[in-house]
Amino acid sequence: MFELKRITSAGIATALQKAERYRLLNEPSAAESICLDVLAVEPDNQAALVQLALARSDQFGGDLAGAVERAREPLTRVVDPYKRAYYGGIVCERRAKASLRAASPASAAIAYDWLRRAMDLYEEAERLRPAGHDEALLRWNTCARIIERHGLTADDEERFEPAIGE
To answer: How confident is the model at residue 159 (pLDDT cuts 50, 70, 90)?
Structure first.
């Protein structure tokens, strides 16, 4: 089809700034595309790998088949174990929130499971964190509050009440 245009090494820093800006403007597919362009030039660019994972998880919506794996894939190449755990937690947390938005009968239990996975990764990041980096603790607390606010549990069956016609 199309032969993609290759960006220059000199343009990578600016491209990554644009990717972050597009994510903030709620245009994650544009950010994803930019990250792929950066990675075509520098396959191990750590900032691009993290931005790619975040841009992909920004797109979690109705069709989640394979979405988590796609978002996690760049993180397997992130060298820093703290960042790998921390951003892995963000991917799981976002998956949980997408499940809560879906509001299907099993979505609460699914959300709980993904939030607990996120919390486990945040605990791992907490153990690895540089001094003064409390982001993982803040995210862990957010997950705990979401679980409490929504009354989520591992098994949602006892709370499920089928609709009965009158």
So the answer is: very low
* Dist. CA 115–CA 27, nearest whole Å: 25
Q: How far is CA 103 from CA 146, 151, 163, in A?
A: 15, 14, 15
What are the tens digits of pLDDT across the range 100-111?
Answer: 998 788 999 999
In this structure, are residues 12 and 32 in contact, taking their beta carbons and an 8 Å threshold?
Answer: no
Token pair for residue 35? 């990250």
What are the helix (H) ranges across 59-80? 67-72
Q: Which long-range contacts (CB under 8 A, 24 or more apart) does 23-31 make?
A: 23/51, 23/54, 23/55, 23/58, 26/58, 28/55, 28/56, 28/58, 28/59, 29/55, 29/59, 31/55, 31/58
DSSP 159: G
Domain-wise residue ranges, the chain: 8-59, 65-157
Residue 30 in tokens: 């544009």
pTM here? 0.89
DSSP helix/strand/coil, 129: coil
